[in-house]
Every structure is written in structure tokens, then in C-alpha cells.
Task: structure prediction
Amino acid sequence: MTTQTNTGAPVTVRRYSGSARLNHWVMAISFVLLLLSGLSLFHPSLFVLSGLFGGGGTARWLHPWAGLVFAISFMGLFFRFFALNLPERTDIVWLAKLKHVLTGHDEYLPEVGKYNAGQKLVFWIQAILVPVMLITGLCLWAPGLAWMEQTLGFKASIDQQRLAALIHAMAAVLAILVWIVHVYAAIWVRGTIGAMTTGTVTGGWGWRHHRRWLREEVVAHGTTEHPRVTPGE
Ligand code: HEM
Result:
């Protein structure tokens, strides 16, 4: 019989590959650039933010390009993670017990897989908002308008461009609110930020917040000393 020596070192579990993290951070950085440049163009009281980019002209130039980087990188993340964000029966139970989520009583919550229902909601809301922002954004950008006319044969009228501006701003406000919830949750649940910086979490974090993921993907397929990279990364 072999005995295992407990070294006392904390058990770490791989949650994200390097490429998944790079994808996420390109998207996150482009989102912050989008947010700051977009707000500076949104209202005269926020124009001061354009100073961060050297002036209104640069902010106006940067905004659509950052938008393209954001939309393409979001698409990358979407295809990596969409299967893991598909709804399940336990999501309804988890949402019904939101009170315990907010009070930190994980012991009353069902075991969840890689993502809980809150994370899945953030994922799907952004998955709707990003294409809306992209399409309406193209209608507000001269090269975007020209591209749509050439490749799709669609020429947006002035009224359609006005409507696009309204929808674009509304979708952006929603996306910012959802992003604030996402970042708040990542900081509030201790040990989560490490998942996207180092790519690892502690075994305790996995046991407490994503027990089914820990069981199925790590315990079943490999030891924590030789963690298996989970699918969808
Ligand atoms: C700039 C600040 C951001 C921070 C600090 C941050 C932090 C994190 C962290 C820590 C995770 C890992 C969560 C886990 O594995 O349980 C994560 C995952 C994720 N983040 Fe972010 N994030 C940021 C921006 C964004 C933006 C702008 C978006 C999209 C609009 C986004 C979308 C996602 C998605 C889709 C996941 C995977 C979770 C899922 O698929 O449900 N993040 N983020």
C-alpha cells in the first residue's frame, strides 16, 4: 500500500489555459478602452475623458477600432465557453436560492459545474448585447457604413442611423451595468481573480463554489498535482 505525504502546500487546480486568459484580457482591456472613449463621446459633461486619449479626435478614431477588437475577442470567448454556459435544471434552483448566494451560505446551494447561473446570465446577456452594439456601431461609422453597402448591399438611411445611435447607447449602458456586476462578483468571491490571472484556483475554492466541476473535471480525470485542463478552455 502506498502512503501519500501531506506536504501542507495548498492544492491548486487549473481553471483556464493561457490562451483562454489572453483571450479574456484582450477583451477586457478593449472593453475598458471602449467604455472610456464611448462615454467621452456620449455627453459633453463626459468629454473630459477624451483627454485620456489625447483629445476628441483620437477618442472618436479609437472607439470603433477598439469595438472591433472587443467584438472579435468576445466571439473567441463565446465559442470557447458557450457549451459550459448552457442552462441546466440546477440553475433554477441556484437562482431560487439567491438569498444564500448573497449571504455567502454556499452550503444551501446545489453543486454547480464550471459556471453558476449568475455567470451564465452575464455570459448570455453579453452574447446578445455585443452583436447589437457591433451592428448598430457599424451604422454610425463611415467605414462601417461603406462596408455594409458594399458587402451586404444595405445603405442605412439617416433615420436608421439615428435609431442605431439610440439602440447603441442603450445596449452600451446595459453592457456596462452587467460588466460592473461581473467585476464586483469576481472581486467579492475571494480567490476568483486568480483564475483569470494565474489560471489556477485553490481546491477549497473549487469545493466551495464549483463542486461538481471539481469532482467531474479534476478528481475524475486527474490528480490536482497533475491537473487536467478542462474542456472548453
Ligand atoms: C476588466 C475587468 C474584468 C475582470 C476583472 C474580469 C474577471 C474575470 C474573472 C476572474 C473570471 C473567471 C471567473 C471564473 O472562472 O469563475 C472571468 C471570466 C469571464 N469573463 Fe471577465 N473580467 C473582466 C472583464 C470582462 C468583460 C468586459 C467581459 C465581457 C463583456 C467578460 C466576460 C467574461 C466571461 C464570458 C467569462 C467566463 C465566464 C462565463 O463564461 O460565464 N469579462 N472574468
Summary: Residues 116-169 form one domain. The pocket of protoporphyrin IX containing FE is lined by residues 15, 24, 27-28, 31-32, 74, 77, 81, 85, 115, 119-120, 122-123, 126, 179, 182-183, 186, 192-193, 195-196 (CB under 6 Å). The chain has three domains: 15-81, 84-115+189-223, 116-169.
